[in-house]
Amino acid sequence: MPIYNPDDHEKNGFDENALRFQGLLTRHDGLMIASPEYNGSFPAALKNAIDWSSRQSDRYKRNEVFPGKFAAIMTAGPGSFGGIRTLAHLRGVLTSLGVNVLPSEIAVAFVGDKCAGESEEMTDTRMKEALEKPGESLVEMLKKTRG
Fold first, then answer.
1. Helix/strand/coil (H, E, C) string of the chain?
2. In this structure, is residue 11 part of a structural domain?
């Protein structure tokens, strides 16, 4: 997706990839978002995808994609904070769009020490179990609210 710019949006129309992403989001009631921390916040690419998806397109109204959804959020980082500063920013953006962000969140500090080399497999079993909890909470909430 190109960087969102309202002037370009008006001039060139709605981006095709953003429209596909909107469609994907509307087919799901829950979001599980895992984001790295870049300079104390979440990456610009994630913000850009959210910005495009929250806009009105030919298929979806402005406030049709995000309101009423539920989200679980997590982050990881190489340092002692584990990306924790990301979560407040992400929570704020999602909440402003009407997403119900679950209260439990997780930040994985020293993430490189918790994985087996280049493998994505988590070797820290305690952390691995902790990482499963937000997903379980999201599923429980969706069962309660969506049936």
1. CCCCCHHHHHHHCCCHHHHHHHHHHHCCCEEEEEEECECCECCHHHHHHHHHHCCCCCCCCCCCCCCCCEEEEEEECCCCCCCHHHHHHHHHHHHHCCCEECCCCEEECCHHHHECCCCCCECCHHHHHHHHHHHHHHHHHHHHHHC
2. yes
* Residue 8: other Cβ atoms inside 10 A: 12
Q: Measured in whole angstroms, how far is the alpha carbon of residue 100 from the centre of its chain?
A: 12
Domain containing 131 equals: 6-146
d(CA 45, CA 68): 23
pLDDT of residue 67: 96
Query: For the segment 10-25, what is each residue's pLDDT rounded down to a tens digit?
Result: 999 999 999 999 999 9
Q: Would you say 135 and 32 are in contact if contact means Cβ atoms under 8 Å apart? A: yes
Q: What is the pLDDT of residues 99-117, one digit of tens each?
A: 999 999 999 999 888 887 7
Indicate the pTM of the whole model: 0.91
- The CATH number that applies at residue 108 is 3.40.50.360
Please tell me the distance from the alpha carbon of residue 76 to that of residue 110, in angstroms, as a whole number. 8
